[in-house]
Amino acid sequence: MAKLKQRTVTILYYDITSLELNHEIATFPQKEQGRVIISDEFKKGKSIIAVCDGEVSVLNKIGDRIE
User: Fold this and answer.
1) CB-based contacts of 10: which residues, under 8 Å, 6+ apart?
2) What are the boundaries of each domain within the chain?
3) Residue 63 Rama label (left phi>0; alpha psi -120 to 50; beta)
């Protein structure tokens, strides 16, 4: 089996215990078709909203700008 290419992504997700919207930059193996393989360990306790290519700077999220 060929070694899988690694890909850096930014994942937006809700923490299922606090319902807080979070993001994390991580590197995962990538299938030939381009989809990343996110481990079950990473998914544990999270509801993934989006997987973005590369390192994304999240400027603000829901609730960040309450004044």
Assistant:
1) 23, 24, 25, 51, 52, 54, 55, 56, 58
2) 5-53
3) left
Q: Is the pLDDT of residue 65 over 90?
A: no
Residue labelled with tokens 């360990």:
41
Tokens (6 digits) for 8: 């850096």
Predicted TM-score (pTM) of this structure: 0.82
d(CA 54, CA 65): 25
Task: Provide mean pLDDT across the span 61-66.
Answer: 66
Residue-wise pLDDT for 13-36, tens only, equals 999 998 888 999 999 999 988 899
Strands (E), 1-67: 5-15, 21-30, 46-53
